[in-house]
Amino acid sequence: MSGLCREVITLQLGHYSNFVGTHWWNLQDASLSYDPETPQGEIQSDVVFREGQTLGGHVTYTPRLIAMDLKGSLRTLRQEGSLYDAGKDTSAVTWEGSLMMHKESPPAKNSFLEDLDKLDKGDILAEADFSSSSQPQCSAAGSVSVDTVNSRLAQVQKGYRLEGSVKVWSDFLRIHLHPRTISVIHQYNHDGEAHRLEAFGQGEALLQGSVLEELEDKLHFFVEECDYLQGFQVLCDLADGFAGLGSKVTEMLQDTYGGRGILTWGLAPVSHRNSTPMKDLYHLLNCTLGTVHLTNHSSFFCPLTLRGGLGRRPSSPTAFPYLNYDPSLWYHCSSVLALALDALTVPYRLRNNSVPMWQVADTLAVSGRKVVAAYGAVPFPMMHGSSLPDALSACTDALPWKPLSACSEPGDGRCYGQWAMLKGFEGQRLISSLAPGIKPPTPLHSLHSGEDVLASYIRSFYPTAPLALQMVSTPSKLTPPFPQIFSQSLDAQGFLQSQAPPPGLPASAVSSLPVLTSLQSGPALGTWLSELHRGASTFDIRRVAPSFLSQGPEMGDYQEALEQLRLLARCYRDDSGGT
């Protein structure tokens, strides 16, 4: 895994961002291989993973990650992790009098976490019935390899139905974290009604004192061990006070690490538990202020959500033809965003022909337009055994991707710039294999490279827009406990089947998935930003939500942010002056 690479540090700010991030890291972990005989993959894992050593001298690979969340959000996960546990030190206990101990029962672990514990102890290997030809292989860490973990957990996957047991993101975390990764904000509670991080100003005020010192210490640790740091990918909750904290964090990154890329993904769930009209108003205000400030301090800002909009009355959640996800479950909707993010972040994680973060941002964020919208076909609808021209020719009326930023495509071909990524076509043909003399059924079937096929198809919808595209054959690998939210029309590799399984027979679990994504900058974002501005401007905040201002920002700062949002929307007007 060693070699020259441009490292990336990831920051996850908020509980939903950690949901999406946990799925994303599980996807990365599933692609890791410690076998020196295995050919190097297209994705360079060292970009986001770091190598370390345990106290026993065993080599480890952990995410180069800082994850911030609130008190009570970890449940069974220890803040310092377990990789570097030296055992309990009782040498400092000198009291010889009587003691009364009050011991609280730890939260119960779900079936997946219980199996991970058994795997760490070797129990699950003894329980499973394996042939002698499949002996477990050891990694450099002296433990069971990732490939073996994947296969062993797959054997017991039939028992993983975690929809009713996932309460926090650590309930489905399958990897070890570095002791410097998790930062718990003790001033605010994850659960309950008291001491909640609900307002933008609360988050802004957090980045000082011990919280600031701890973040700077963690950043310094990860930055110092990087040889060629290209930048930071920031996942930040938009709808609560973490939007304010994220605005200050990205401002600090911009001031301290100028010249590095800062790609910020603003995350918002489809719904919140126990929401009220006042809480919905707070969510809108946080999204509004977060969009303005995160955009100011980032190389680009991309909202990611399956909501029909960021306003108080959104339309229906984004629907995908071959997914059966429950929008009310964070465990489900965050998995869809993580699959998209796995493809969206590929350009700066490639082993060969990678594109630095700053170049990706400069390609899209032209003339001050630093807000971009994401779209995704999850999965990309490709028939097993067919070709890319066949798959795209079946989508001549409309592009196969759906909105991932609550921003509908205009449908009129107007776009200032676009970056497309097709990931996961492994084993499928990229060009037509018609016999000589056979007339191609479509122009796409006459092209001689997959890149030409995809570019020609996209340009049929956006004929004049600048286009960058990349293609990676390696799919997103789905391992336990990724939710099985897929249509029975898909086979185990995520491709369309000619026939669905007969009634009564269970469909095979989907173990990988092809995904097509697009990042766009275009006039549609002007409409999206204008609607966000309109939603936050239609009421007197001093009368309707005075407590929001009492926790910051000042009224003047709030009005200034609204004006910045209005001007930002104007940047996306086309040449004719319309939005």
TrEMBL record:
Pfam families with a match to the protein in the record: Misat_Tub_SegII, Tubulin_3
Domain DML1/Misato tubulin residue range list: 165-350
Protein location: Cytoplasm; Mitochondrion
GO biological process: mitochondrion organization
Predominant subcellular localization, coarse grouping: cytoplasm
Alphabetically ordered keywords of this record: Cytoplasm, Mitochondrion
Family: Belongs to the misato family.
Name listed for the protein in its UniProt record: Protein misato homolog 1
The species this protein was found in: Lates calcarifer (Barramundi)
Upper taxonomic lineage: Eukaryota, Metazoa, Chordata, Craniata, Vertebrata
